[in-house]
Amino acid sequence: MSTSRLINGVEVASHFRDVNHQYSSNKEGIWLFMVTEILMFGGLFVGYIIFHSLYPEMFAEGASYLDWKMGFVNTLVLIFSSFTMALGIYYNQVGQPKRATWALAITVLCGAIFMVIKYFEYTHKFHMGIFPGRLINPEMMAEHGHPMQHANLGMYFGFYYCMSGLHGIHVLIGMGLITWVMIRNIKGEFNPKYYTPIEGVGIFWHIVDLIWIFLFPLLYLVG
Amino acid sequence: MGHSSGKSYIYEEPGLKSWFTSLDHKRIAILYFVAVMFFFLVGGIMALLLRLELFAPNTSANVGQILKNGDAYNQVLTYHGAIMVFMVIIPGIPAILGNFFLPLQIGAKDVAFPRLNLMSWYVFMLGASLAVATFFASKIDTGWTFYTPYSIRTGSSVVMMVVAAFIMGMSSILTGLNFIVTVHRLRAPGMTMFRMPLFTWAIYSTAVLQVLATPVLGITLLLLMMERVFGVGIFDPKLGGDPVLFQHFFWFYSHPAVYIMILPAMGVISELITTYSKKTIFGYTAIALSSIGIAAVSFFVWGHHMFVSGQSELAGVLFSFITMLVGVPTAIKMFNWLATLYKGSITFSAPMLYALGFMFLFAIGGVTGIILAVTAVDVHFHDTYFVVAHFHYVMVGGTLMAIMGGFYHWFPKMFGKMYNELTAQLSWVFIFIGFNVTFFPQFILGAKGMPRRYFDYIPEYEQLNKISTVGSWLIGIGFLFGLYTIIRGLTSGAKAPPNPWGSKTLEWQTESPPTMHNFDHDPIVTAGPYEYK
Lengths: 223, 533
Fold this sequence. Notes:
The complex is a heterodimer of chains A (223) and B (533).
Chain A: E1 4-7, E2 10-13, H1 19-54, H2 56-64, H3 68-93, H4 97-128, H5 138-143, H6 153-186, H7 196-221
Antiparallel strand pairs in A: 1-2
Helix pairs in contact in A: 1-2, 1-7, 3-4, 3-7, 4-6, 6-7
Chain B: H1 16-20, H2 25-53, H3 70-105, H4 114-137, H5 150-153, H6 158-185, H7 198-230, H8 243-276, H9 284-297, H10 313-325, H11 327-341, H12 350-373, H13 375-381, H14 385-415, H15 421-447, H16 462-492
Helix pairs in contact in B: 2-3, 2-4, 2-16, 3-4, 3-6, 3-7, 3-8, 3-14, 4-6, 6-7, 7-8, 7-9, 8-9, 8-11, 8-12, 8-14, 9-11, 12-14, 12-15, 14-15, 15-16
């Protein structure tokens, strides 16, 4: 069944009673999806806790290869992007869609800055021979003046690349989603009565930021 | 709202394309039905092959092997398990019967997110196709559990299969999410949570499990993939990792997944028992809440798959006790069904036979589960045919019986035609007897120490294995009768009235088959679902 009708200028699918019924259902769906995201990252966090308790010195050594300043800048960039994302929703609520578009554009830009910094961090490590797991290259590391101390250091970087990599994929997906709602916003599809997609994408973006706020101390500041 | 003519959902829009683009929950259910039936046929043929191989030990006196060698046996075993678990039993009841009847039972016009519902089917088909494709790439031989470290080292296409399972998991999550929001938000006026039919309650509890457990499988499979591609080391003892951690992660999903498979079946049985004994269900609230109880406990029992893995003794004892706890809400259901039958006016039609078959077989499956929960006994029975018999009594004797019973029960509603009662009952006789002939000897084989997953055995086990294989043929004949019943019903069944069984739930209060909008007038609910005399 796919029919819908207009109620107060908002298209409402026929299995919903009214605008608010549709809005609250959609929002519940989005929040439930966020629960699954957190549970998925939860598996990684549990693995991290177990191996950190087994090899604390390995995690300390691994973290010493990460540049906390870059991580910190990225944290600030994401927190600021959460603010602009919220502005994107707010400006739509108060009927200023042009400003909302700007806010969303800045949010995408912040995501891009985050990814560029991440790119430099990754390539720097590849250059030094720091790869995940069995691919880690102790000779290359020694050549660069950083002989590997802990035999299983590769596993720390297994966690590092898996956790930050999965997070990075989410940032990219988020940027794509924000661009999508931005284009719809430019086309004039949203108004103070209807902005559910922006709000949904916003919730996703905040969760992605929130996960980074946990990843930053776990990966960069540990030890 | 533009209520169209009284056309049924089947004929509302013509053409094959309209089926593949339909957002109607009933049509999507039919899409799942066709796919799952196909996979069931494939998985079933593999089961017959496995039993055929085990008909006799590979001694010189015998003709020898049916399957080329042990590798071929391992592969068929893996595909049988993976197909039956991920592509038949998990989607079976929720995606087919749940999709069709959950909105109808709560008086809704559709699920909350119809577009997402259709997308879930495509995602499921993508994953399923990938899984089948591995068969033509390099056949996988890990068993459906993908245990490390073997799954890291084997040459077969584990990555592709794992991606397939991940994608099917996504489909399962999206379906569960859809159902939760549907139950929370789309109930008809007056349909309070405690007026919902018990089938809906069961699908709802299942949906909660799907949403909460499957993401953990997702990350586990992703990590396994990373392990194979990059050797990240988390599950690899060579790199300081822990293969037992994989088992913990895997069963943290896969044990709740066992209840994803059985809870919907219990929901079906509640509907059948009350309808065919024409009696108000006994202990409605207890049955409804025991579904939630089982779902809650299911998250804390995963360690009982790992009693011999080297986990701590304390963990073993705790998991043992919590596992036995599952027996409580399960027994609550069983006794309430029995009490419902008491002094009811029982009709022994095919769905009721399946429901009674379920109770008999599931009782055996459940009680042997308690036996296996005892750590001292499990050390002996672990990885023997006793375990194989136990979970087949639950999954086949339980869930598959419920799928069949539920399917006959709702057949008139889904297709607007009646099925042939005689062939349906004949099918049941063969499946019920065949099932016991196949799997009861396996309890004895297991108790005598025959290990599972082997393609060969010592001559001492021959007689019971022969009986078991003969039983598998009886099951096969039973399903052929079932297939015949379905095809005959579809082609030349009599026209079904709206409510042939005199059932009280909402889906029977509209036409058979329902129109695209389910109800001509939005239902208003004023009483519970089973107000029989």
